[in-house]
């Protein structure tokens, strides 16, 4: 098989979504790497990497824009990737958005197969086109550990009477993905529960925390009775979710009223049931939710 035929078969494998066809174009020691792989992949890992892309973008296609070949077996190809996000991407629900990505592959190939592929593209472009936030920060710096968070606001502006807290210690990426999947579904179900006022999920280093605001401490008992949270508890006490953790319910000792600045005069006002008007006479905005 000529080098040109091997390279063509490699790109055909991507377009027909055939991981075995892609793997077959590499030599036994052949490697693939791009900005998202965290190093070189080989063997089945090359096909698994491609399969993740196909799962997120089932209609993904690569169109070769230009290519060059040198006598020593080195090829370069500029490509245009297009696809629609109808599957999970980075553990998130599909957005239904279309993406367009320019990139290039530099391929070292012999008549025995591909020795290496080095792909280049803007790793932040797809998340940006999907409407995702891109935050560049260190994992840790001195005594500080950095992470990410998500919030689900309830529909009520009532002051919380209690907070339920769950803190899990994760072992690896699979734990993080499993907890995130559970948390997303739980957050959806919380919105229809009696006394729910708001939810915040935080991932920092190997810690994953959720803080849920309730009208009354007993409202949190609903989590143990049914739904995804009850399923997640079974997973936690089984062999597959997290290295450990703790939970608790904290009754509010004192919750002060919401303060809000008047948009007309700038005076800070404390909301009350008796008045929704600033001393300057301007109507205050609706009371924001606490949590």
What does this 3D model show about the protein?
With 291 residues, this protein is an alpha+beta fold. The protein folds into 3 domains: 3-129, Nuclear Transport Factor 2, Chain: A, CATH 3.10.450.50; 146-251, Alpha-Beta Plaits (2-Layer Sandwich), CATH 3.30.70; 256-291, no CATH class. It is 23% helix and 34% strand. It has helices at 3-15, 19-24, 44-56, 125-129, 173-190, 227-237, and strands at 26-33, 61-69, 74-84, 98-110, 113-121, 140-141, 144-145, 147-153, 162-169, 196-204, 207-214, 244-251, 259-261, 268-270. A 5-stranded mixed beta sheet has the order 1-5-4-3-2. A 5-stranded antiparallel beta sheet has the order 8-10-11-9-12, covered by helices on one side. Strand 4 and strand 5 (113-121) form a beta hairpin. The radius of gyration is 26 Å and the shape is elongated. The model has no long low-confidence stretch (mean pLDDT 92).
Features:
291 residues; alpha+beta; Nuclear Transport Factor 2, Chain: A; Alpha-Beta Plaits; 3 domains; 5-stranded antiparallel β-sheet; 6 helices; 14 strands
């Amino acid at each position: 098989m000529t080098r040109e035929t091997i390279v063509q078969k490699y790109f055909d494998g991507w377009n027909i979504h055939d991981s075995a066809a892609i793997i077959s174009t590499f030599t036994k020691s052949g490697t693939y790497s791009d900005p998202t792989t965290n190093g070189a992949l080989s063997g089945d890992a090359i096909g698994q990497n491609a399969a993740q892309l196909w799962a997120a973008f089932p209609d993904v296609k690569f169109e070769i824009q230009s290519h060059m070949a040198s006598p020593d077996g080195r090829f370069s190809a500029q490509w245009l990737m297009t696809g629609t996000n109808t599957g999970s991407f980075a553990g998130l629900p599909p957005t239904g958005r279309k993406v367009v990505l320019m990139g290039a592959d530099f391929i070292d190939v012999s008549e025995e197969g591909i020795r290496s592929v080095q792909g280049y593209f803007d790793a932040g472009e797809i998340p940006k086109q999907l409407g995702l936030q891109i935050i560049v920060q260190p994992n840790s710096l001195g005594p500080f550990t950095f992470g990410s968070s998500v919030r689900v606001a309830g529909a009520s502006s009532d002051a919380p009477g209690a907070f339920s807290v769950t803190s899990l210690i994760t072992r690896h990426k699979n734990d993080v993905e499993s907890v995130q999947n559970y948390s997303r579904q739980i957050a959806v179900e919380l919105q229809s529960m009696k006394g729910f006022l708001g939810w915040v999920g935080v991932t920092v280093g190997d810690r994953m925390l959720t803080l849920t605001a309730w009208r009354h401490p007993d409202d949190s008992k609903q989590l143990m009775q049914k739904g995804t949270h009850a399923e997640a508890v079974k997973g936690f006490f089984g062999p597959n979710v997290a290295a450990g953790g703790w939970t608790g319910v904290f009754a509010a000792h004192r919750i002060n009223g919401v303060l809000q600045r008047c948009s007309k005069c700038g005076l800070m006002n404390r909301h009350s049931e008796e008045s929704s008007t600033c001393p300057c006479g301007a109507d205050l905005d609706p009371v924001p939710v606490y949590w």
